[in-house]
Amino acid sequence: MTLNDDSFTNWKNREEIAESMIPMIGKLHRERDVTVLLHSRSLVNKSVVSILKTHRFARQIAGEELSVTETLPFLEALTTLDLGPSQIDIGMLAATYRADDRGLSVVEFTAEAVAGATGANKIDRREPRDVVLYGFGRIGRLVARLLIEKSGSGNGLRLRAVVVRGGGEQDLVKRASLLRRDSVHGQFQGTITVDEANSKIIANGNEITVIYANSPAEVDYTAYGIRDAILIDNTGKWRDREGLSQHLRPGIDKVVLTAPGKGDVPNIVHGVNHDTIKPDEQILSCASCTTNAIVPPLKAMHDEYGVLRGHVETVHSFTNDQNLLDNYHKADRRGRSAPLNMVITETGAASAVAKALPDLKAPITGSSIRVPVPDVSIAILSLRLGRETTREEVLDHLREVSLTSPLKRQIDFTTAPDAVSMDFIGSRHASIIDAGATKVDGDNAILYLWYDNEFGYSCQVVRVVQHVSGVEYPTYPATSV
Question: Would residue 289 show up in a list of annotated catalytic residues for this protein?
Fold first, then answer.
């Protein structure tokens, strides 16, 4: 047998193992509200190849590929336990088991590591929580995709309605088509049908009522059977408490804004300050995509080294706010053709840091350049640190943060030498550290942070909504703060 034959046989064996994992992952998700993760990446509804690629990705972070032969025993052990709603990272289970020297079997170790989610310790499955989208643009449709994807067990967030202004003939069909096909993010994973008679889009069995209204005051959500819902405003039309309070109509309990909030509206970056949300807070903001990209690594650096000052330069993909061709725009420069120009503009991300990281007293400045790409941006974060360090130490620290810290869902890490912006379309992390571009000289560090300003940000929005709704389940094995 040749070496090539050995490699092919090995691949086929791993394919077979990955195939055997799919029904176990699906059953845990549907029947017990358990989401199986691999180094913070969900394996729910993933293909054989996707599961194998996710295992291989661990090589970029930990230095060696994680094999399905290594994680399968932990998955099998989970199926034997009396599990409650939770998220369980089999990559972390495998890594911590490897470092454990007590001689426990995989079954014994797994039972101990997830004990908080089993037996008398497990939390009850929550009642579904209604969600309404106000607006159905770039972020609205991606949030819809995520909510539909996560509706597997029926006990989490349930997208009940979308509110839009009427668009004329075939409006419902066209909106459904935009949900089904996306030029940047590809095809919707599932089936979509349109019920024009009842003004519904049915996506993977989720009946979503499309409500036509010109203002929040026109809608009584209880008339559609919607109760105690979280409304996600992705129009950005209102950003202060007074304006957003218009959404607190019958059937709506909380309002979440997908843009930076103004005044006393809390700006939340999940993973950093979501635990500061007061239970009775009805209006909050998820800040901006750039704020979500820079705050988690900024916190990671400040916690370890101290940050004395910083500047962020964002190279940002163009957005719908800009013009396709030169035309009038109320803002400077944004009236110039987005696909043809680099456009200097302002960013509020630097000033928003203070809201998300009030303990960071260092001055942070910022500016932005819009460039002719439709998605994925990069933030260049230049920091003056509280002590001198080395490039190797900084990269080791950030790699470890991306793997084992409470920020592992927000911070990703890549060592790929040829990585470019297109490679990060669909990333679910708020920020991806580019190891190869990182520069450190004494107490000066420059980090290059990729981020999918559409999809990665939408994932952060959904995490905030999960948190305030009570369906953000604990993750095992637990990470130390």
Answer: yes
